[in-house]
Amino acid sequence: MRTVRTVLGDIPPGQLGVTDAHDHLFFRVPALAGQELDSPGAAEAELRTFHELGGRSVAQWTPFGLGRRAADLPAVSRASSVHVVAATGLHQAAHYAPKALDRLRGRAAEFFVSELTQGLRPGDDPDAPPGTARAGMIKVAGGFHALDAHARYVMTAAAQAHHATGAPIGVHHELGTAAPDVLELLCGKLEVPPSSVILGHLNRSPDPRAHRELAASGAFLAFDGPSRANHATDWRLLDCLLALAEAGHIGQLLLGGDTTTAGARAATGGGPGMPYLLHTLRPRIERELGVRAAEAVFVANPARALSAEWIDG
């Protein structure tokens, strides 16, 4: 039976409800120094605002080693009444000190499996005792139009962890690129079913032809980080979604907020934050694509993309 693995336990996919399929409650990288997402109170406030608009679940894509504050996730989930799906995995090598990556060299797959089946490590020590919350997905990352050795290593480990557990894999695509390379590796060579792969940040490369080619693989396509002035997002987003819907791929589309800085939160910063998905984008999608399409994008599709037939033995 398929279930969604949240930080408070496994739930039926039908209980996920309206979902932000790619976001961050806690996040810390050197490139965004001074804008860290590290306040449990601010995370709870953002989730409460999201909940007031009908949001019921958030997939938090922050992987190991980037300040995900795993020990705080169950509490903010309970306090806000929003389901949280947490991630194991690793981001690009540039976001880590070399010594941190060395500690997982040769055992990344084993580590991912342990976080999916036993519990998330509460800090940045991969050898720390696991906490009570388990990961519900694996986060990996490609590079700009290419996959370097680190990306290939992490994706190989993620594929091994998927085959051992059934977990879905979410992929960061740098500026929306290298998705064909990812599919060739993950779904071709490493035999991960496309239905277990979420291709993220495709809005950052708004090429409808390329999107249709990716959709033909059967993978989920995530459009996230709306209303960013430095990306071609909002003014092309609906055209991209409409083109995919007309090509018969409405059942593969996901939307997320991808809030990565404290200033981008709605409840405690300048926004637009998680609520933007529901108070601005959802009404526009309903007008352009129809209510049933919006229901698919925000409810039915995430329930399939984030669920798995878990193997815990």
UniProtKB/TrEMBL annotation:
- Decide whether keyword Hydrolase is in the record: yes
Q: Which UniProt keywords apply?
A: Hydrolase, Metal-binding
What Pfam family does this protein match (any one)?
PTE
Q: Which residues carry this modification: N6-carboxylysine?
A: 139
Q: What name is this protein filed under?
A: Phosphotriesterase
The family note in this entry says: Belongs to the metallo-dependent hydrolases superfamily. Phosphotriesterase family.
Record has GTP-binding as a keyword: no
Source lineage = Bacteria, Bacillati, Actinomycetota, Actinomycetes, Kitasatosporales
Q: PROSITE patterns in the record, alphabetically?
A: PHOSPHOTRIESTERASE_2
